[in-house]
Amino acid sequence: LRSGDVAHAARDSLAFVALWLIVALVSSTFLAFAAQEKESKEEANPGVLFAQYFVLSSATTPALGSALFALGVDVRRVRNDLAYAAKGLLDKSLTPVRYEEARDRTLAVKRTWNYNLTLLFAVALYNALGIIVIAPMNNGMQMEVEMDVLMIVAMGKEMVLLFCILLLVMTVNDDADELATALVTQTWGAFDSEAEWRRNRLFCLATYTGPTPGSHRSVLAFLKASRFRPVSFTVGGFRPTMKWVLGILVSLLISAAFSFSKRYAESIWASPGDDDMSMGRMDDDAP
After folding, report:
1. Which pLDDT band, with edges at 50, 70 and 90, does 214 fall under?
2. Which of 53, 235, 251, 278 keeps 20 to 30 A from 221, CA to CA?
3. Distance (Å, whole) CA 118 – CA 111
4. What is the pLDDT of residue 220?
């Protein structure tokens, strides 16, 4: 690790923790006073309500921030390996062995995080679907806006952490792709020179993805076999890059905005006669 790498990872994790604690503080204050206004003062204590909402929305924040810090340190270590390999491109001293060492160290770090990141990916996906699908279905609830805020704050923490992790992992894959781009655009000598042969070999290592020998013998062997691939840091089986992460973020924001705006538009533009008709039917049914 370089000097400042640990401090940089700590700043990222503390920024996430501080941001979400502020969100939890503001939303809990809003929800506590909103609940008190809708109930009698004897039944609703704003201090107790604030504590309940704050714990619900921020109880796991320190643990998630610690996980983000640990991942940030590992990502910095991998990026330092890639930066060291990229320096070899400047003087054309990079060898296939050095690239394979960086790739293997990246794979070792990824394996230590594989199950944890996959589980987090599944939980964040569940929360994202909850925000987009379940929250807009709160029609008929008296505390409609308050319930939306509560569900977004309660479900959004893991989803925001997932994007923080994707942004971290994305830097590793983007660095590896930049290395491959530099290899394909450079020329290290004559066509039959040893330096040019090394460049072609490095380009194959930095771009080729395929199954390992024996992985197609059976379905079980295919599932258990590792894949031959360049430097890759995957999350849930996906290899996030800048374009990939931005596409998911924009799609999620558009889906959530459309979902909530549709629900509120339906409640605003609902026919005012519906309530009168329902009241009329109740009067007809009355004895």
Report:
1. low
2. 235
3. 11
4. 67
pLDDT band at 161 (very low <50, low <70, confident <90, very high): confident
Structure tokens at 149: 């805020």
Alpha carbons 198 and 6: distance in angstroms, whole number: 35
Considering the entire predicted model, what is its pTM? 0.77
Would you say residue 222 has pLDDT above 70?
no
- The alpha-helical segments, DSSP class H, found in 189-229 are 194-207, 219-224
* Measured distance CA(137)–CA(99) in Å, rounded: 52
In a 3-state reduction of DSSP, which class is residue 238? strand
Say how many residues make up the chain. Answer: 287
Number of neighbouring beta carbons within 10 Å of residue 125 = 14
Measured CA distances, 95 to 180, 202, 228 (Å)? 14, 7, 18
Angstrom CA distances, 41 to 45, 98, 145, 149, 192, stand at 7, 69, 20, 22, 86
According to DSSP, residue 138 is labeled -
Say whether 184 sits in a helix, a strand or coil: helix
Distance CA 18, CA 7 (A): 16
The pair of structure tokens assigned to 227 is: 């894949």
Confirm if 5 and 72 have CB atoms less than 8 A apart. no
Lowest mean pLDDT among 7-16, 168-177, 192-201, 246-255: 246-255
Instruction: Of 21, 50, 22, give the one whose Cα is nearest residue 35.
Output: 50
